[in-house]
Amino acid sequence: MVANWGNFSTFLTAGATALHHRNNEFEQGYNATIPSVTLGGGYHISNNLEAGLAFNYSNSKADNNTGGGFNVNSYSPLMYINYQPFDNAFASLALGYTRQNQTNNRLAVAGRSGFTGHVTSGVTTGNFNANQYNLNFLSGYDHPIENITIGPRLGVDVRQWEMNRYNESNNTGLELSYNSQYQTSIQSTLGLAASSAHSFKYGVLVPQLSASWVHEYANDARTIHSHFVQATVNPQYCGCDKSLPAKVAAGFFFQTENPAQNWAVINLGASFVMQRGVQVFANLLTVQGNRNFESYGGNLGVRVGW
Description:
Layout: E1 2-5, E2 8-21, E3 30-46, E4 49-64, E5 69-83, E6 89-111, E7 119-141, E8 143-145, E9 148-163, E10 166-169, E11 176-178, E12 181-196, E13 198-200, E14 203-216, E15 223-228, E16 232-233, H1 235-238, E17 247-248, E18 252-255, E19 262-274, E20 278-288, E21 293-305
């Protein structure tokens, strides 16, 4: 929902995404549901320049195919600028920060199976926080042809994700301690958008369609370092010289999956502009062609002018 007061505007959007991650040799598959809501406001500095602030909250809840799962609460304040350098052209810049509070439940299994084997298993829990810094730029040009508007889109998305070390908890004896991690992603977006306007008795219907090709430049497979929590020996409990640092046994190394380098994003939507500045809109969005995952999402809203 959006409301306008002269040069000021406020907006509220809500939606959800269903994500399916495919199983591979490095990471197990999972299905996630991600609802989100965004609230913000902007100010028109001039006819062709707008600046604003927004806040987004999302929750990612997933179940792994082989047991366990994760839950992530994300809090994202951001600042944006929209600029129209000339007729039918636009450029948008958004700078944001995301704080993630995540809980992982991992099904841990150790030992040998069989008639004489012994298997130790259980669910471990890990709680940690992560920080993500975002820069998003999108530009485009809309060329009108009668009641149809069509034009190219070009964008850049930069993300830096950082996580401190953390320990899993529970009493299985298989809990792990993970070293800190970081991840850098630089993506380009090249696409085409089209819309058309159709007048009816009670308003104007504007269906919209856009398709973009996304290419990843920086993100690559990572190696995660870890060791058993109980493998850490504290000198004060072993009778050793307490001036010595804690000793840590040899750890484990996990390689993450190789991120996809190319995929497509398709967005289908429509808005209906009625009398007295009332606008109803809906959008459906899907990610296709990514070798690791696919997603389907959408949002619904109402715009009211004042």
